[in-house]
Amino acid sequence: MDPIRRHIDNLIEQLTLEEKASLCSGQDRWSFKLVKRLDIPAIWVADGPHGLRKAPDSAMTGDGDQLPATCFPTASALAASWDRDLLRRVGKYIALECLAMRVHVILGPGVNIKRSPTGGRNFEYFSEDPVLSGELGAAYIDGVQAEGVGTSLKHFACNSQETQRMVASAEINERALREIYLPNFEIPVKKSNPWTVMAAYNPINGTDSTANKYLLNDILKEEWGYEGIVISDWVSVFDRVEGIKAGMHVEMPGSSGINDAKLVAAVNQGTLAESELDKLVKETLQLIFKAKAGEKEDAAFDAEQHHSYAGEVAAETFVLLKNDNTTLPITAEKYSTVALLGELAVAPRFQGNGSSQVKPTRVDNLSDELAMLVGDEFQLEYSQGYQLDDDADMALISAAVEVAAKADVAILHVGLPSHYESEGYDRKHIDLPPVQVKLIEEVAKVQPNTVLVLSNGAAIAMPFADSVAAILETWLGGQAGAGAIAQTLLGIVNPSGKLAETFPVRLEDSPAFLDFPGLNRRLNYGEGIFVGYRWYDARKIAPLFSFGHGLSYTTFEYSNLVLTRAIITDSDILQVSCTIKNTGAVEGKEVVQLYVSDRESRLIRPVKELKGFVKVALAAGQETTVSFELKARDFSYYDDAFGSWIAESGDFDLHIAASAQDIRVSAAVTLDAQQRRPVHFDERTTLREWVQYPETRAVIHEVVKDFFLQNPTEFKGDLMDFNINEDFLLDLPVMKYVFISGGLITERQIAEALEAASQLTVKL
Ligand code: BGC
């Protein structure tokens, strides 16, 4: 046994019940408890996720008084990079700051699914797609943890809205949970083993996430093999004893000892086994010692270097949504006077509100950055155009329009004011402030080369999209985002981000519109698995800009899609490859997406689902081969009738695409599934269900054949094929044939058939 484990076993022997209970909650805002008597040290946790928010003292809130740290682009921006390596490096940089500031665990990444564009914390989350969210979350965790600092994968699970966030229950069916709201956690848990997982505020199907045995024990620990600890979101616990039984290790930030005392009482009264406490405390001690072992005494970080890296990161995240007539980039050959409009150009919005707020080491703005790069190449004139803190004041518009009219090109920097997007509440709509919309309309009337630069953490509606020449989405780009915007506008950087979330034309088009944010503490996940592009595809609703969309200053050609086999079984790995060529004049990066589409299935499925992605950098004229691996799970749906993932035999289309709406090359593959599964039939199983598999069809054939032979009008064609024209008969539970057959079919025969079926396995 390794010495640490032996030491922990000894400690468990020596700790009193009270001390063990005390280790199940935090000491104060940001630290775990220590037990001085036994040299058990306290460790420090801090937000997260796109930079470090460390309070000067663990008992202080860290709201405004936090230590300066580098503010990287927020998660919605990072996700638009679609770049695992980038996320890994961001994780590393943040970990270096954690080490320098003596923080053991950073409270991130947040991988929750963007169910509605109005979700208040969408800026803190990656995507509407679980594979993209999960893969990027895993990369971030790898980057942080490789430096000896822990992460907290949050918020487990279904934390997709802020309204009534501590009490409203996510009412969700098992299939949607498994296919959409859990793989984003499953992927990082299995790939990257985050040191901690943070249980969410919201209950799920009526059970608190912090006391949810199904989620924390059965799925996270048993099914996925999670080895770390679960901490609660801040003040989210209602029932600490149930939490222990469910597998929730540490309550944060603690309950002033109230819940510790309840744990002691529960053990003394025999309603909680001390062994359950021991198990969790042991795992917590393992984390504490691992965290302490990661400390580096002389750690420090170079703020300037981190700032400039944050700028490089931002440049990878911008999405060129539209660029008519190559309006961008702005070059001296095309233009000589440039108008820069909008208060955001001098007062950037670079992060969201709430617990993730970093106190930046410095902040750049677009006006200065552009002026620096432009030098005397262009004439640059600025006009404010609107005030961020007054949505309705139109007084500044006309001066800005005048500046725009005189210039060759107008850069109009608009976006959501800070109070629009925050932890703690959801947006009511997805519109820009009225003053900004008006400004855009007026500028577009006088300036054909109007370029919108957007700063927002989540999707917005753009009724003005057709009236402007170019749109660059720059998200909440962190403290150095402005320099990256300037470089992108001038073509020094070629934009390479793609949307990780759909931008709808109207909020009313979005998947959760009718159910969000719910009523009476119930969040009905009525759209089920049809989240994000899965919804727009299925409902044939054209989005404004689709998932995966993003242009470049160059162009890419996709060709030569190769599959290693035409037929696979469910134990095979399919290799898929494709050639990508930069066919334009400048170097650029392309995000290549692989979607799987099931042609026919027992259950309704999304039209297509993202199962792979890769980002490649190519010089002008250069080409490369990208490859993907697909396994049975990538072809599967979750069927709660079987309680498992099902890879069903049949034909699938594989699409290599530049966006969810821009499929470039496709090929078909046939899945010949070998796995056999037991059927769960009972007296309510219909004839149609009985006849769907050859094995069970043979059994029921013997039971019902005489009835059908005696009633030829009820049935046409070959009896063994059950080519019965009457849906009515097919949809009768077989037990009902006892009654309609006038005694020909007996209850006993049905019971025997059910017994026979319970021994059978079938292929799907
Ligand atoms: C948030 C978490 C955060 C925690 C600590 C909570 O309100 O939901 O994301 O890590 O506070 O600040």
Structural class: alpha/beta
Bound small-molecule species = beta-D-glucopyranose
Oligomeric grouping of the chains: single chain
* Rg computed from alpha carbons, rounded to a whole number of angstroms: 29 Å
Domain module count: 4
Count of DSSP H/I helices: 22
> Strand order within the widest sheet?
10-16-15-14-11-13
CATH class of the largest domain: Alpha Beta
Uncertain segments are none
Just name the CATH architecture of the largest domain. Alpha-Beta Barrel
Biggest sheet details: 6 strands, mixed
Residues in helix, %? 25-40%
Task: Report the CATH superfamily of the largest domain.
Answer: Glycoside hydrolase, family 3, N-terminal domain
Q: How many strand elements?
A: 29
% residues in beta strands: 15-25%
Give a written overview of the molecule:
The chain has 764 residues and is an alpha/beta fold. The protein has four domains: 17-293, Alpha-Beta Barrel (TIM Barrel), CATH 3.20.20.300; 312-539, Glycoside hydrolase family 3 C-terminal domain (Rossmann fold, 3-Layer(aba) Sandwich); 556-674, Immunoglobulin-like, CATH 2.60.40; 678-763. Helices cover 30% and strands 19% of the residues. The protein has 22 helices and 29 strands. The strands form nine sheets. A six-stranded mixed β-sheet has the order 10-16-15-14-11-13, sandwiched between helices. A hairpin with a 4-residue loop joins strand 24 and strand 25 (644-646). Helix 5 runs parallel beside helix 7 (183-192). The radius of gyration is 29 Å and the shape is globular. The mean pLDDT is 96. The chain binds beta-D-glucopyranose. The site of beta-D-glucopyranose has 7 residues, from loops.
